[in-house]
């Protein structure tokens, strides 16, 4: 029987559930993201990081996305220098700090720690998502990238589902307009720390063997100079420039959906419940678009156009519903908080809208991953 480093025919006959298979490695990165960005999403999804006053969370997110924009570009080069384990571990560790800053804010109401933690998390998120993107687009076999992306997205967004249940359960009987309790933040921190530890189990691409016996990729880690030059070259690649508007759009709507829809329209316990369904909708969306992109037509080009058209039509319809809902605000303010038990039919429309936002997000993000994965096969290029 072939060893882990030997992609022989015998190795190809090994179970797809072996440790060095793409399936297991994608599952591991899914669990890492379940624990870290999955819990971060649940925390953010409550609006204002679970605080009544959204100011600290808004300022922290401004700092977060400022550094994320820089390290989102640099993260691929850092991944190629350090490899997946160190890159992912460094990135995951910053999520614990961010959740801890809101635990601190619960007691002292000082923004500075949250803002600094947000800036540090932006660095970590750039590292984590560059590493995750390299793994997701290069480890799976070429003909099943959509399926693997949907598999990852399902595991990852289960974190948002569980993360939504945490504030829902721990704050169920709190009817006052308070911030979430300390136990909510502590639970998030425990999950995030677990994700950081799990990231050390990710194998480098040279040790990942597909079911047909081929390796994910053969790479020698680059120098800082090489990575800097190759990253700069991306800005002259017309294919990457065409993806830039989608990259801009991919995170643009989160602050609005979390703070101005879920955070503004609903009671404290209902926000947590809504997040369960928002991230559950992401699982449905990713599975649906993954199946469409891998199995709907024989031609990959046709599948791509069908996927883009489907997402475009759904996106237009859902955001039209969002506009209709926004027109019900008075001077940007929603005057009557909705509760899943007490508000009756008034709760249904905004709830379905928020659910649909989650569905569309997963379909859009998965489509973008699939397109990027179609541009190359080696992790060194795809990480950048």
Give me the secondary-structure topology.
Blueprint: H1 9-12, H2 22-35, H3 37-45, H4 55-82, H5 84-108, H6 111-138, H7 145-170, H8 182-198, H9 224-234, H10 238-250, H11 254-265, H12 268-295, H13 300-326, H14 345-373, H15 379-383
Helix pairs in contact: 2-3, 2-7, 2-8, 3-7, 3-8, 4-5, 4-6, 4-9, 5-6, 5-8, 6-14, 7-8, 7-12, 7-14, 10-14, 12-13, 12-14, 13-14
Short description:
This protein is about 70% helix and about 0% strand.
Label the structural class: mainly alpha
CATH architecture tag = Up-down Bundle
CATH fold naming: Growth Hormone, Chain: A
Using only C-alpha atoms, the radius of gyration works out to: 21 Å
Q: Give the CATH superfamily.
A: MFS general substrate transporter like domains
How would you spell out the order of helices and strands?
HHHHHHHHHHHHHHH
Highest CATH level, the class: Mainly Alpha
**How many β strands by DSSP?**
0
Low confidence ranges: 1-12
Head-to-tail CA distance between termini: 35 Å
**Helical element count?**
15
Largest sheet: none
Task: Tell me, rounded to a whole number, the average pLDDT.
Answer: 84
What share of residues is helical? over 70%
- The share of residues in extended strands comes to under 5%
* Total number of distinct structural domains: 1
Shape: globular
């Amino acid at each position: 029987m072939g060893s882990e480093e030997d992609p022989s025919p015998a190795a190809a006959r090994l179970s797809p559930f072996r440790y060095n298979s793409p399936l297991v490695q994608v599952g591991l990165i899914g669990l890492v993201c379940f624990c870290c960005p999955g819990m971060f999403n649940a925390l953010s999804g409550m609006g204002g990081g679970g605080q009544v006053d959204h100011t600290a969370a808004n300022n922290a997110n401004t700092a977060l996305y400022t550094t994320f924009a820089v390290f989102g570009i640099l993260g691929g080069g850092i991944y190629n220098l350090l490899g997946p384990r160190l890159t992912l571990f460094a990135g995951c560790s910053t999520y614990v700090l961010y959740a801890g800053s809101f635990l601190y804010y619960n007691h002292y109401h000082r923004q500075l720690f949250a803002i600094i933690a947000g800036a540090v998390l932006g660095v970590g998120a750039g590292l984590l998502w560059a590493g995750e993107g390299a793994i997701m687009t290069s480890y799976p076999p070429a003909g099943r990238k959509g399926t693997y992306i949907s598999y990852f997205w399902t595991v990852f967004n289960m974190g948002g589902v569980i993360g939504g249940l945490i504030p829902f359960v721990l704050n169920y009987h709190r009817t006052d307009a308070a911030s979430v309790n300390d136990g909510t933040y502590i639970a998030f921190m425990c999950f995030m720390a677990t994700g950081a530890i799990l990231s050390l189990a990710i194998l480098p691409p040279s040790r990942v063997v597909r079911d047909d016996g081929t390796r994910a990729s053969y790479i020698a880690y680059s120098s800082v100079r090489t990575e800097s030059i190759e990253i700069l070259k991306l800005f002259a690649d017309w294919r990457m420039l065409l993806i830039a508007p989608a990259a801009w759009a991919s995170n643009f709507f989160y602050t609005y959906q979390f703070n101005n829809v879920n955070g503004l329209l609903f009671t404290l316990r209902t926000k947590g419940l809504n997040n369960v369904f928002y991230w559950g909708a992401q699982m449905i969306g990713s599975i649906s678009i993954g199946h469409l992109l891998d199995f709907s037509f024989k031609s990959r080009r046709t599948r791509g156009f069908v996927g883009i058209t489907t997402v475009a039509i759904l996106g237009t319809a859902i955001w039209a519903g969002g506009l209709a809902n926004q027109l019900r605000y008075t001077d940007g303010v929603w005057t009557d908080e909705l509760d899943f038990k007490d508000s009756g039919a008034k709760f249904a429309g905004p709830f379905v809208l928020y659910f649909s936002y989650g569905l569309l997000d997963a379909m859009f993000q998965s489509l973008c991953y699939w397109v990027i994965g179609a541009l190359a096969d080696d992790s060194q290029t795809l990480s950048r």
